[in-house]
Structures are given as structure tokens and as C-alpha cells.
Amino acid sequence: MSRSGTARRVAVLAGAVTATALFLAYVPAHRGWFDVGVYHGAVSSWLRDGGALYDYVRPGTHYGFTYPPFAALVLSPLALLAWHPAVAASVLVNAGAAALVLHWLLAPVARRAGWRRWYAFGLAGCAFAVLEPVRDTVSFGQVNLVLLALVLADWRALGRVSKPLAGVGIGLAAAIKLTPAVFIGYLLVSRQWRAAAAATGTALGATLLAMAVAPGTSRVFWTEALWDTGRVGDLAYVSNQSLRGVLARIGPDLPATLWLVAVLAVLALWAGRVRRATAVGDRFGGFALTGVLGCLISPVTWVHHLVWLIPALARLADAARCAEPRGRRRALLAAAGASYLILCSSLVWLWWNGAHGIVGFLGANAYVWLALALLAGLPLGDRAGRALGDRTGRALGDRTGLPRGGLAGAQAGQVQQGQPVAVHAQPADHPGRHG
């Protein structure tokens, strides 16, 4: 690469970093490390002062610890830290998790496209930081990015020829916070029995460990705190971008069966699409769809939980880059760009104090509509889908003479880990809302 080309890239990246820093400093509301304050206060009260974990309430609010006891064990080092070191530790852990997620999602694409790694990662890092769920996760001091990294670690492990640890990341994430257990459902639907057993065993083992260490606290969580929905906030609050949140905003008197019907419909759509992804060897597509599903069916999906949409956004963008013919590529690029802008926009907060009329109904639930669109329309089974991070495909290709993109370039279907692989010729938030 010429010196002028390098200088141009450095200038562009410097401009992007500066613009991102200014945006983060002045545009979005900062969440004041609210959730790390809850974690820090709860585990400190529990371990240092002998208080009951689920009786702790952060001063000035009515919000306390909402996660399983195993999460409190994982977060227990916070009890050793003063407030400012605890905030610094939260930022460092989130930065590390974000770097891992970016590397795992972008490295295969950069390798195939021949991009300069430092330049691609720099620009992608800026784009990543501007996403509302990411910046909220960091400024709340939340754990979402860490859980996403644990789950994506299993996606990578499942792509290896030897995969003894596949499922452990999902199991740990589910033991820390129950929502990632939806990925065990993905492993079952896609018939990855060994990984499903490992994930289930890990989650149960971590839960039993917490019961052994803190039996009374575990009893309170599983019999009382888990079922107290008032602990996590108002279901109708605009930050709750789940199907349950939509129905709560329509009316508090709607029957619970309506939510159950909506959840069952979404589950049926997800199961059909996951089976399709499995049939064409698109493991990453299956993981991305499952992240979207978790956001939709959870009773509470605060905006910062929407980091689970990031794999679907990455999948959509990469599919757009590889799509043929030109018309399809333009349509997918437009969809990817619009999806990204919506998830950066903080659009739903225009209706934080109530939504009225059709425009209000559509706008206040914008992230739910985006999640539904991704679940129904995410491209599956094209070249990008099978090649993105498919470590098994690369290993097989290296040994058999197939293209390094995995099995995507083969001219006939191959069987990969017992599954057929089809080949195509073309391819202002209230700070107390947490959990």
C-alpha cells in the first residue's frame, strides 16, 4: 500500500474516532453507572455486612439485585473495591468483551475481503461504540457484552473439528442471567446434542454451586425474587422493547394469554428459520436468529439488552456485501444501513412519557419492529453465512483442497458434522431500568 493510501486511511480513521468521541461525550444521555452501583452495593452488603442479597435496595431508588445467586458469586470481587475502582473495572471488562466480539465478527470478513485489519477494526469499533445498546451497557455498567462474548465463544467452538468445550459459554451465561438459556433451545432445535448437554450441565452445575455456597439466598431467589416482576421496573416503560412491553403499552388489562400466543407465534417462526439455517450449514445465522428471539420473548428487554441484535446486524451487513445480483445487494445494503441507524437513533425515547396514535405506537416500539424484521428476513445460507467464522469449514477445506472459505465454494453439498450443507452459485432513560 502506498504512503498516500496509508495517510488517507489514518486521516479517515482519526476523523471517525474524533466524531465518535464527540458523539459519546455530548449526544446521548449517560446512565451514571447505575447498574454497577446495584451490583457493587448488593454484593458488598451481602458479603461484607451480612445483609440479605435480595433485600438490598440502592439508596434513593427501589431497585435491587435481580440476577441468580451464581451471578452474585461472579460479581463478588466488586465487594473488595471502592466505588471508583469498581466503575473502572466495569469499563475495562466491557471494553475487553467488546473487543472480543468485534474481533470474532469482523476478522473472518476482513480476511475474505482483503481489508487492512487495523483500518477495518478501527472503523468498526467506532460504529460499534455508537450503537445505543452498547453505549448504554457501558454507561450503566451492565453485563450484556460479557454474556454476548460467552455465547459467541460457543459459536466459535462449534466451528472447530475438536470442540470439547462447546456449550460451556452458553451454560455460564445462562447461570449468570437466565435469558441466554434460549441458546440451549437453539442447540436442541439444530440437533447439536453434545453442546446442548454441555450447556445444560454447565448451567445446572453453576446453579448448584451457588446453592451449596449460599443455600438460603438461592432459596429466596428461586422461590420469591424470580417471580417478583416489580423488582425490574414497569413493563410498560418505553425502554422495555419486547413483545410483552408492546402489549403492556397497548393496555394493562390485556389478557396474559395474548402475550403467550405472540410468544408461541414468534417461537414457531424462529424454529422454522433455525431449521432452514441448519439445513444449509449456516450456524452463525442460527445464533443470530436466536439472539433476536431472546429479545422478543423475554418479558423484559431493556434497550441495553439489545446487544443481542448485533450478530444479526453483522450477518445482514455481510450478506449485503456478498449479495448478487446488484439489485439484491442494494436492497440488503439499504436494509443493513437502516437497521444500524435505527439502533443508534434513540428513537423510542421520543415517546418516553407516553405514546399516542399510530405514529406513537410505531415509534415507541421501533426496536421491536426491527427485531421482528430481522427474525423474519435475515438472509440465510448464502456465501457469507457459511463462510463467516466457519472454523470447521476452513479446517476441512485446508485438508481436502476445498476453498479456504469453507464449503461455500464447493460445487456439491457436503456433510458437515452430520448436517447437509447446501451450496449456491450466487449467493432519556430512567436510571432504575436495569436487569
TrEMBL record:
The protein's name: Glycosyltransferase 87 family protein
Topology within the bilayer: Multi-pass membrane protein
Compositional bias ranges of the Low complexity kind: 409-428
Localization per record: Cell membrane
Organism: Plantactinospora siamensis
Lineage, top ranks: Bacteria, Bacillati, Actinomycetota, Actinomycetes, Micromonosporales
Stated family: Belongs to the glycosyltransferase 87 family.
Keywords of the record: Cell membrane, Membrane, Transferase, Transmembrane, Transmembrane helix
Region annotation Disordered: where it falls in the sequence: 407-435
Pfam families xrefs: GT87 (PF09594)
Domain of life: Bacteria
Predominant place of localization: membrane
Annotated transmembrane regions: 82-106, 118-134, 165-189, 195-214, 254-272, 284-310, 331-352, 358-381
Cited InterPro entries: GT87
